[in-house]
Design brief:
GO terms for molecular function: electron transfer activity; flavin adenine dinucleotide binding. The chain is an alpha/beta fold and 347 residues long. The chain is built from nine helices and 18 strands. The structure holds flavin-adenine dinucleotide.
Length: 347
């Protein structure tokens, strides 16, 4: 069961302290349970490479305290497990080397997580808040009859978590009284785990009997030379103001000059100026690059939900009162059709 302790309004939430009683209650509970706390992290991987969001999930698990175990599944699992065992924060790696777990079918992964959770008695199971995590964790929650805690951005203690609500317009702090906590983690809120000098132990687990009723047919991934939007260090995003697919080329030109990924507002996507895989925001990708350049984007709350955690935000808008300027580190007031070619030339 989850109880909401309080919620704060305002885009950048004010710091709120727990009352003294509440704090000591949490701290003592935290302290009492510390010895038995143990986490299990589901490792997403593709082409033998650990998914970036999973690296952040490991950091979140480490922050909880206690032993952190990782489970790697699929026909490539053994190779990936070796890489996982060298990650800071991982104490033990479990491997289910079985092709039935390829392509992350939730019908297969959930029973596996359930079996390993029961075997090692983990108090917390974590996955990234990706499309895979969002499919796997609810099934596990139903099996264990607990309520999942979604999209956490902060950990106050082993039972209390922060998560954004209302498209990131408010942060709520929730306490779970369930004995097992099932958590999905927002990757932009935690730094990715890095390699350590040593390697943790790896152990095989038996695959449970799983019934996969759906069949994997194929995957079509749009490929380009630009850095992937989700992991690019610099992102240049265009909004409705670019006016056309031709106008959107100005965004791509600057991005290419900076070696950046390309993003877009939903208005630009809906108008057909670019592919919908580029959409940043509540219903698009949630990113936090080192530098985000928003061009001709007003700063609607649904767009900000996808980029507000960027380290440095630069905005170009002809309206000096555009809401995006309120969260920008650098604001350029002017016409994008004049500014962009100049910037691209000088970059
Ligand atoms: C449920 C829901 C989910 C949504 N999810 C998303 C989402 O994931 N991502 C998202 O982006 N939106 C999302 N939206 C839409 C969102 O509310 C806004 O409509 C959208 O973000 C607006 O896009 P925009 O800023 O490009 O366009 P506008 O709001 O029209 O802003 C265009 C801006 O360009 C400026 N401009 C105009 N001409 C120029 C020029 N020549 N030079 C410089 N500046 C200029 C204008 O001053 C203005 O600020 C969602 C909405 C809903 C209801």
């Amino acid at each position: 069961m989850i109880s909401r302790l309080f919620k704060s309004s305002g885009f950048i939430s004010p710091r709120i302290s727990l009352s003294k009683n509440l704090t000591s209650r949490f701290l003592s509970r935290n302290f009492e349970n510390r010895a038995s706390l143990s986490s299990l992290v589901f490792i997403e991987h593709k082409d033998k490479k650990i998914d970036n969001a999973t690296l952040s999930t490991i950091t979140a698990a480490k922050q909880l305290g206690g032993e952190v175990s990782a489970i790697v599944a699929g026909s490539d699992a053994s190779e990936v497990a070796t890489a996982v065992s060298k990650l800071n924060g991982v104490d033990k790696v479990y491997v289910a080397n079985n092709a039935v777990f390829d392509n992350n079918h939730a019908e297969a992964i959930s029973p596996l997580l359930l079996a390993v959770q029961k075997q090692i008695n983990s108090t917390h199971v974590l996955a990234s808040h990706s499309s895979v995590g969002k499919r796997v964790i609810p099934r596990l929650a139903a099996k264990l009859d607990v309520q999942q805690i979604s999209d956490i951005t902060g950990i106050q203690n082993e039972s209390t978590f922060t998560r954004p609500i209302y498209a990131g317009n408010a942060n709520e702090t929730v306490e779970s009284t369930d004995s097992i906590k099932l958590i999905t983690v927002r990757n932009t809120a935690f730094t990715p785990a890095e390699n350590k000098d040593s390697a943790s132990s790896i152990e095989d687990v038996n695959s449970p009997d799983v019934q996969v009723k759906s069949k994997w047919i194929k995957e079509e991934v749009s490929k380009g030379d630009r850095p992937d939007l989700s992991s690019a260090k610099i992102v240049v995003s265009g909004g409705r103001a670019v006016k056309s697919a031709e106008g959107f080329k100005l965004i791509q030109d600057l991005a290419d000059k900076l070696g950046a990924g390309v993003g877009a507002s939903r208005a630009a996507v809906d108008a057909g100026y670019c592919d919908n895989s580029l959409q940043v925001g509540q219903t698009g990708k949630i990113i936090a690059p080192e530098l985000y350049i928003a061009v001709g984007i007003s700063g609607a709350i649904q767009h900000l939900a996808g980029m507000k955690d960027s380290k440095v935000i630069v905005s170009i808008n002809k309206d000096p009162d555009a809401p995006i300027f309120q969260i920008s580190d650098y604001s350029l007031v002017g016409d994008l059709f004049q500014i962009l070619p100049e910037l691209t030339q000088k970059a």
